[in-house]
Write a structure and sequence with these properties.
The complex is a heterodimer of chains A (222) and B (275).
Chain A lengths: L11 H9 L5 E6 L3 H8 L10 E6 L9 H5 L6 E4 L10 E4 L5 E5 L3 E5 L11 H12 L3 E5 L8 H9 L3 E5 L8 H9 L4 E3 L1 H19 L8
Chain B lengths: L1 H20 L8 H14 L5 H10 L1 H11 L10 H15 L5 E6 L5 H12 L6 E7 L2 H9 L1 E3 L3 H10 L10 E4 L2 E4 L1 H4 L2 E5 L11 E6 L8 H14 E9 L14 E5 L4 E4 L4
Parallel strand pairs in B: 1-2, 1-7, 2-6, 7-8
Antiparallel strand pairs in B: 3-5, 4-5, 8-10, 9-10
The chains are: A alpha/beta (222), B alpha/beta (275).
Chain lengths: 222, 275
């Protein structure tokens, strides 16, 4: 089966959802050109009850302070933070890599930053985040590659796949810039190739699940 | 499982390096160390860290190559210009009140931060009474730092950073361009002492008014971070200054309470008077 074959039609989201339900402890997301617009659609779907940390690398100009927290906090129910070195990882929190530093997940889990050289001309690099998160969370990690005009992230997604984690790639047709997702798909037979609105529905489902689990007696399982 | 083996072999390699060469990476932040060692595996054409360990134990030359991977020197002059601007505006006025000054650049790598401070101190008229200690654990990068030679195509970025730091002179006054290189002037170098020092194993060697240690603590775990910040506290005079990297903080250090924030956004701290 070629990667393109798992492009989900209408049933894709439910299938993806049932495969990640109760089996992931963290989400990593990477993107470049067009990724801010994509995240504006995705992140508000994560409701406050989602008990997972979310780590995000978006390629940004290195010499300017990042405005990501200001952009996303008003739109999101989750806490949105710029990652700080040695910070303990908390569930229900979105961590953005700061400009000009790699973001890694270290033992603990705690956040770690590095000023090591660029990877695919990028610092922060998606590969660096994804590979370290795969080491930390093993098979209990979901990685999502979004739109971008660069090949960063492909090796990282492959590392998640090797560790048995869940791999999601934005469908090239729905990506503003398809180079990043194509590179990822070339290296990894991704578990799910989804359009942006389907990824949004998947994230929404994660929160819905949490809400339902909190109710004392759920009426029926769908 | 593959990763478990990697973890085991990593610890063994680090222990072997400590026993054989007395370099202590045992309390380095694991995630960055893992990544650097994975890169080193490719360079040494090794499949496993055990193979690498064999090569490193039996040939000191291999260890010095590996040391470059473990201490990846990445720096630039006047990195984060606002840090230097804040030093100029908030710290230098207080430093001026001392008849003689000592500064410690800890983890100086290839020297970019050292020369930045030397230039800044010269511009502020206090370099001639200042001694800068520039220390690192890697003898090869220390040698480069001492030489003060940088590729000419990096100078444009350095010059732009320098300008943004509130420069009073032109950076080109401090180096000579020769072919594709820029060589920093002796007048700066004669105020600098380059020396081997490990924040993991060595102790305090001088009393200083300012310590600049940027993007070094991020590579340490909290135990080693605490050791390093403890050394800084002990080396600083009363009300002495400590500058760290833009995304580092003393928030998670046991010594955090022993420092006051002077310029929060540029991570410049001052040792509390009672300490």
């Amino acid at each position: 089966m070629s990667p393109g074959d798992n492009t989900a039609a209408s049933g894709g989201v439910e299938q993806a959802y049932s495969s990640i339900r109760n089996r992931i402890d963290a989400i990593v997301i990477g993107g470049s050109a067009g990724a801010i617009d994509a995240l504006v659609i995705l992140l508000p779907e994560l409701c406050a009850g989602v008990p997972l940390p979310v780590f995000i690398v978006v390629h940004l100009p290195r010499n300017r302070p990042s405005l990501l927290v200001d952009i996303f906090q008003p739109r999101c129910a989750l806490r949105i933070r710029e990652a700080e070195d040695k910070e303990p990882v908390e569930p229900g929190t979105v961590y953005f890599a700061p400009p000009d530093y790699h973001l890694l997940v270290d033992q603990g889990p705690r956040l770690a930053l590095s000023a090591d050289e660029t990877v695919h001309f990028s610092r922060p690099s998606i590969d660096v985040l994804f590979e370290s998160a795969a080491d930390a969370y093993r098979d209990r990690l979901m990685g999502i590659i979004l739109t971008g005009a660069n090949e960063d992230g492909a090796d990282g997604l492959a590392a998640i796949h090797r560790c048995g984690g869940v791999t999601v790639v934005q469908a090239p047709a729905s990506a503003e810039s398809a180079q990043m997702v194509s590179a990822a798909l070339k290296l990894t037979n991704a578990d799910f190739v989804l359009h942006l609105d389907q990824i949004a529905a998947l994230l929404r489902a994660l929160g819905r699940d949490e809400q339902r689990d909190r109710q004392p007696a759920p009426p029926s399982p769908e | 499982m593959e990763a478990d083996n990697f973890e085991i072999e990593l610890r063994l390699l680090i222990e072997a390096i400590y026993l054989k060469y007395h370099y202590d990476f045992r309390e380095y932040a694991a995630a960055s160390l893992r990544r650097r060692l994975k890169t080193a595996l490719l360079r040494f054409h090794c499949d496993t860290l055990s193979q690498l360990q064999d090569q490193v134990l039996r040939d000191p030359e291999n260890f010095s190559v590996l040391l470059d991977y473990l201490t990846v020197p990445v720096s630039e002059m006047f990195r984060d210009p606002s840090y230097y601007k804040s030093l100029r505006e908030k710290v230098v006025p207080l430093l001026r009140t001392y008849p003689s000054l000592k500064v410690w650049v800890a983890g100086c790598s290839t020297g970019e931060e050292v020369y930045s401070l030397a230039v800044l101190f010269h511009e502020e008229g206090i370099l001639s009474r200042t001694l800068i200690y520039a220390t690192d654990i890697n003898p090869q990068t220390l040698q480069k730092a001492e030489a003060g030679v940088y590729e000419i195509d990096r100078m444009m970025g350095f010059t732009e950073n320098h300008r943004k730091s509130g420069a009073r002179t032109s950076l080109s006054e401090y180096y000579t361009a020769a072919y594709d290189r820029a060589v920093f002037n002796k007048s700066l170098k004669q105020q600098i002492v380059f020396s081997d020092h490990s924040l993991a194993t060595d102790s305090v060697f001088a009393e200083v008014q300012l310590i600049s240690c940027r993007n070094v603590l991020i590579y340490f775990n909290r135990i080693l971070q605490d050791r390093a910040v403890g050394l800084f506290r002990d080396a600083l005079v009363r009300k002495g200054f400590l500058g760290i990297g833009a995304k580092e903080s003393l928030r998670f250090s046991v010594h955090g309470g022993e420092f006051d924030e002077v310029v929060r956004e540029d991570r410049i701290y001052q040792k509390r008077s009672g300490m």
